[in-house]
């Protein structure tokens, strides 16, 4: 009985392993030749342009667009939210809606849900649009904009900002360690008049906005672009939007570049990462299945020819004599 049961279990396990092995090998081959959508090809192209760079490489425009997220220290000197409470609540609902839509692409590395990866590789315009909306409607966590104490306790220096439109110059006060960053920003983009601010903006608020913008940039250049997450994109966009809200700085084109074009690069790196991970998992799974299949087949063959002991042969002989009889048949 035990021998028959083990043999049947081995047969079933071998059949199951063969079916799963065939499925994994088919998935691996399909992944090699799977045609990606036009929109994902654009994302992969954007990713290839900035591969292996950090967020600050080349001093390019994208270096001013994306900061790594950071965990504020416990000793926060100042927090304020640039948006009214009713707007925050309304936007948060919309943000959660788009976040839920996008959640189907959060974890794509499972080989047991291969169809979901294929859906991502066939991503369409609407899916990219939803990601953009999740970034746009994000309004930050509790506390709003944050400035760390290590910046606010520094000695400040005066930096001059030119207003080419009105022919004026403004003086802003910037923490000493941030001044070189702000001066570089002015040197590269100051001629666009992006940092003039709204009419009537006080020197104090202009200094606050300039300091916050410099902090965002200071938090950059520490993460490789391919490691950027959705949280990084949302956090940076929120800060740029918040700074624009309180100062009137014209940061729209930087935010749009972040929200639109850089979303493509983010998705491209996501596709590269998950496709590689799934391939590696499939290779490992196939190797594991082949090893287990070989072991089960060897066990089955060994069971067929395994030499039983003399005493077990006696037991088998006795069993064959009274097969299909009841316990008392031999008594009568």
Automatic annotation (TrEMBL):
It comes from the Eukaryota. Residues 7-34, 279-306 form a coiled coil. Keywords: Coiled coil. This is Uncharacterized protein.
